Amino acid sequence: MLTRCQTDGCPACAAPPPAAPPRFVKPPALSMKTALLGVRQMAEADLLSVDAGISSFDLMTNAGAAVAHAIITRWTSRPLLVLCGPGNNGGDGFVVAQLLAEAGWSVRVAMLGSREQLKGEAHRHAERWHGNIETLSPDVLKGAELIVDALFGAGLRGALTGAALDTLAAAARGRAPIVAVDVPSGVMGDTGAVLGAVRAVLTVTAFRKKPGHLLMPARSFCGEVIVTDIGTPVSVLEQIAPDTFENDPALWLDQLPVTSDDGNKHTRGHALIFGGYPMTGAARMAARAAARAGAGLTTIAVAEMALPVYAASLTSIMVRPIVTPADFMHLLDRSRFSAWLIGPGAGVDKETLGRTVAMLATGCPTVVDADAITVFQDDPGALDRAIIGPCVLTPHDGEFHRVFDAAGDKLVRTRAAARRCGAVVVLKGRDTVIAAPDGRAIINSNAPPTLATAGSGDVLGGIILGLLAQGMDAFLAAAAGVWLHGAAANAFGPGLLAEDLPDLLPHVFQHLAKEVI
Fold first, then answer.
1. What is the pTM of this model?
2. Which of 135, 204, 225, 334 has its CA 20 to 30 A from that of 189?
């Protein structure tokens, strides 16, 4: 028996009965290669390393040596100023100063506080420095042609103030490049917030990146980021069990759909897109992206009056007219389609709301984007209740704020949204965050500024749809789609238009295939 869709003015008089929730399937294990560690997790990694037999003194020695090596390989000898803080970051700075002085560099050290205030290994390394220690102030910058910022690491709890703020601000006005140890001082390692930091040309961190290296605005303050091996055993990751990762093919490449010799267009899945009118370009670009992403068949369902527009501009994409509400309900027969997308160009109205609810009610993998998200702004809970199967939401900031709580940093907000609604949430931007309902999150870093162009989000929705249609896990399909989207844009360069993106995907897939071989 069909049940009412519960939406006033819905063009579909009835919705199919809700599908039984899918049986729990253990999510694929994610590669630890690109795991991100928060500030507390990195501190835990250090403690576990000591338990494994690596002294904290050696860890600090190795961290400072990695910074010194990075400097020597990028710059010739020149007057160097090392700014040391009152904690372990300052201890790293003293190691850098000592090693470069031994290598023949002209090195000066300026410190916030005094050497006597340092504790533990930082104090031991400071004692090994036999040069003068100047008091931190903007005056110490005179004559420096390269600056090492070892004032504070990622664990700084508040904004920079006093001599640290004044000195770094003066350094930013100068011409000397700045090298940051761990993160630029004033960058929050967990959130990506910037509280007084200045831009570094190079940041050297240990073992694994932190979320703050990838989240905006901090990412633009870090410059080139180098992750170094300081002796931390990779095995400690099993004990820490990180749940945040940098997006990389290593996470999902083995799950990416591939063609088989005995396959056909039907085994590659059939994607359905609801095409809006009069805004027809968004759905057309999404459809081409779904097909380029590998869907064996792609269909756009459109209002009868829009049929000529779609049919005249599409060849391999099929177009189905919707004349009556029954026509739309007939298309939601799961035996025909393996995944669907609604939102691009759909319009913010009761019809879009009703169709979105009807699609979600089937339990079929669904991408909900753009207008299909905004239609829930008056009753966000209705979106949560409607999601019963694999679902990917792809909002930009404005759409996100209409249906989800905007409190907290981007990683916190996206995780909370995914947990609340039970869907994978892709919060788009230069630092797109992909979060799953179980708490896992992936931060993307390969999106170029050229993606800030009309329609690029519609193409992203289509790519994810194409992967879902082929049976890919929703979380990994979203992550792969976001990365492929960025890689395609990078392959094109300046002058990118959204409609260029689908045709760039074959090049990206060919490159990935070479990695597998």
1. 0.92
2. 135
